[in-house]
Amino acid sequence: MPPPPDEARGDAAEDIQWSRPECQAWTGTLLLGTCLLYCARVSMPVCTVSMSQDFGWNKKEAGIVLSSFFWGYCLTQIVGGHLGDRIGGEKVILLSASAWGLITAATPLLAHLGSAHLVFMTFSRILTGLLQGVYFPALTSLLSRRVRESERAFTYSTVGAGSQFGTLLTGAVGSLLLDWCGWQSVFYLSGGLTLLWVCYVSRSLLSEQDLLLALGVLAQGLPMAKHNRVPWRQLFRKPSVWAAILSQLSAACSFFILLSWLPTFFKETFPSSKGWVFNVVPWLVAIPASLFSGFLSDHLISQGYRTITVRKFMQVMGLGLSSVFALCLGRTSSFCRSLFFASASIGLQTFNHSGISVNIQDLAPSCAGVLFGVANTAGALAGVVGVGLGGYLIETTGSWTSVFNLVAAVSSLGLCTFLMFGKAQRVDLSPAREDL
Q: Are 380 and 73 in contact (CB under 8 A)?
């Protein structure tokens, strides 16, 4: 049976592409949203030392609180993509942001509800992870439907640069707030700014009726129209889908390993170095690198290069060349060279935004959100395992070279698979279309 008129109109509306002014407005708004996402995400790592002193946590207990975010984050990736494909990614992002912003702002209050500080903080981080886990799958769903193919890479890489902005903002401003006002102020600021962003988006870019309709769908659990169901069997029969998933897994795992262990590497290898230097410089490099990769990708496609050729080139940079610089990290004793290699590796990894991240949108724009959720779930789980394995290798071998060898091995696996089996041909439709 055909879907109800209201549902059909809603589905059709989701596929209307933004005009140039609309795309620019939404790109800036989502860039800020991604920045605030990471502000809330890294607030706990920035405040962990101070909170551990206040509550008497040891390293193991602090590790439980820090890792608990990923327990929730891994669980809602597919759900976020599914909801984004169904009710619209912008609505999913706004509803989840309002919830994680409120929880972040209320974290200091939760910490003092009772004597079980560890339990309350662990629970709040799990809940924050659950709510933030829907963001990037919903974002992928939104951009795959609303942005032209020739502009997707730049749009996605620009929005993705918000992760570096957020990390830098919380690292810089959060450090000052810790000294001036205490750790509670970091959570108040990041949570409060997120709620202000939600108010702006709900008043300026979305109507109240849109949000009410989205809440109605979620509350009533309306049955999915047949044409909106994800063709799982059809998708997973395609080698290109598995290549995209494995490449996303490799990119996420490599990134999490470097993100988690680089500060410790610099602190232990170069004890006299300044923390603000090696914690800031790589992310300053990553911001223009992310923007440049998106511009370059869209420019090459507009010049007539095949889409899949451009996507594979971006992955050669994001997984291949970045891992070369990671290998160099373990083979130098110079701080300046190590900082250069780390910055180059982190910066080049942003080319993945213009490669595998948009390739998923090429393959299945009708269900890009849920497919990205599958790939990102695998990537998050692999990242947790990779970070743990990195620590084991350091303890066992006593050498940082083994960690960077692990990064290179994981990256090479994803790159080789994508170069062999990656495609940009749609696989969510039948009959299959011509390869782009």
A: yes
